[in-house]
Write a structure and sequence with these properties.
InterPro entries: Split_barrel_FMN-bd
Number of domains: 2
Number of helices: 2
Distance between the termini: 43 Å
Radius of gyration: 20 Å
Shape: flat
Helix content: 10-25%
Length: 121
Amino acid sequence: MLRRTPGVALTVDVCDVCDVCDVASGLVRQVIARGRGEIVPFGVDRGRRKLARYLGPDESLWDTRFRDYLSAGPAGRGAVWLRIHPERITATDLSYRVPLSRPDRGDLGCGGVGDTAAERP
């Protein structure tokens, strides 16, 4: 499908969540990239660098599904990269002010994480 219609949009949201489904701090940021996508071959070395950045350098501690991408190689898993050639990028701060307490929940503090949230604009 992407080869026929290369238009793509990628959205990355950052939400400061401290409890299940409870956004206590009000921090919400969003970046959207729109443009043309291109499928490129999966590179094991690059994949290893990306995974180590987020999972740490010790591959023995990684979940097996991540290690499998590297050991099976790109052909074994059918893995590819999606390269985005952005034509437009927007960044939006969707943060909101959270009251220090709510009648239905009580104190919104999350072990100190959300204690200063009400000071945010």
